[in-house]
């Protein structure tokens, strides 16, 4: 066939025609193409270039920045993908290109199957048994976190943890949570934080929410195994709505978000302080009540008539006896005399009561001593006062003061300067005057 | 459940708090003698102090691990606002262990 003048195209003319016919053809517009990725190049401009291929053909493709922004996984060589796009002809190079607008991982079904199989294996091994779970410390001092240093997860964890427990210690093992080396990097973080040198007592491992592909590293066997093998208890904290990742099953605790994990990990310090104070006050109140009961019993004993004046009773009975003796016949005399002997034994009983009372009294002193030691303010509030000498030392004996001397008296709401007028020595519950009057302001 | 033995035979915070609660209950039920009551109270008082000390043990430190030049792991401080826990400088949160 001979060339024909009016049917000869320039290169650009024919290329333009080709372009028009391809780009204008609905069959080459918005089509789904499946294939394997190769020659993946992440360009600094944000565009991604790659070749889609199968056994017989290759397709040069571009995934521009505006379209790949929402991509939830990193493209890797050999990945099977489904792509949606349209064809264009690049005149300057004389080639056609597939311009991708959406991409999905092909074979999500396969991934799910793989996860299922791993879970089944772990269950059979007994690796997920509740009995194997480690208990987290009630009060962790130093928490390790395995997550991305640039994500929101670590920021949320720090904020929540510090709000609950302002002096908490947190150590971050920076990890990549998606992409090629995510698995290796998470495993490395868990292992590193488990080293005793870091003194970590609880690990939070996770990331914020994402697509199924995003969360995939937390379903991978090495990550699951690292969590199972951790010496330190682990909280899995992978943001998810429906399906939880296998890391949740493997970990000792799991939380639906990183913030929730921080709440599980860290108690609220102010509540613990309140709890301690509450229990201490309960113990203090109970002890005070116990001592009040002893004091009441003691004053009850002291109020008994025989205790107040036993000799009076004995004397009265003796009078009655004498009267009887005078009125009854001599034959009863012996029996009455025996009864008299019995009654005369009363002073012994009196002595017994007295020593009992003295003993209780000294025990009470010990009790008050204990309370004073622990809470002098509390004792003052109950109406007691505390006397100190000129040098501020507590006066424990009258031997350390002299009449005319100055002393300080402390009560619950303040103190007074006083002058000693008289001194009295305490003798077995009674008083022996060594002077007169009372201390006076 | 695994090892939960805090240093040198000291009870854990949780255990000490539980003991304190038991002491409060025993004192409240009033069955103890006076001397025992006092001894129990003194023990409770020591436990309460111990618990408070435990709460103040940690030192509010946020750190990030880094792979150092010779491959050894190094620690670096992460500066945060003490009241809100917000990160002072995002530059502090960078790097990797790999």
Task: Report on the architecture of this protein.
Chain A is an alpha/beta fold. Chain A folds into 4 domains: 102 residues, Beta Barrel (OB fold (Dihydrolipoamide Acetyltransferase, E2P)); 157 residues, Rossmann fold (3-Layer(aba) Sandwich); 107 residues; 67 residues, no CATH class. Helix content of chain A is 43%, strand content 22%. Chain A contains 15 helices and 15 strands. In chain A, the strands form 4 sheets. In chain A, strands 1-2-3-5-4 form a 5-stranded mixed beta barrel. A 5-stranded parallel β-sheet of chain A has the order 7-6-8-9-10. In chain A, helix 10 runs antiparallel to helix 14 and helix 12 runs antiparallel to helix 13. The longest helix of chain A has 35 residues. The C terminus of chain A is likely disordered. In chain B, strands 1-2 form a two-stranded antiparallel ribbon. Chain B contains 2 helices and 2 strands; from the N terminus they run ααββ. Chain B is α+β, with helices and mostly antiparallel strands. In chain B, a hairpin with a 5-residue loop joins strand 1 and strand 2. The two termini of chain B are 32 Å apart. At the A-B interface, helix 4, strand 7, helix 5, helix 10 and helix 14 of A face helix 1, helix 2 and strand 1 of B. Strand 7 of chain A pairs parallel with strand 1 of chain B.
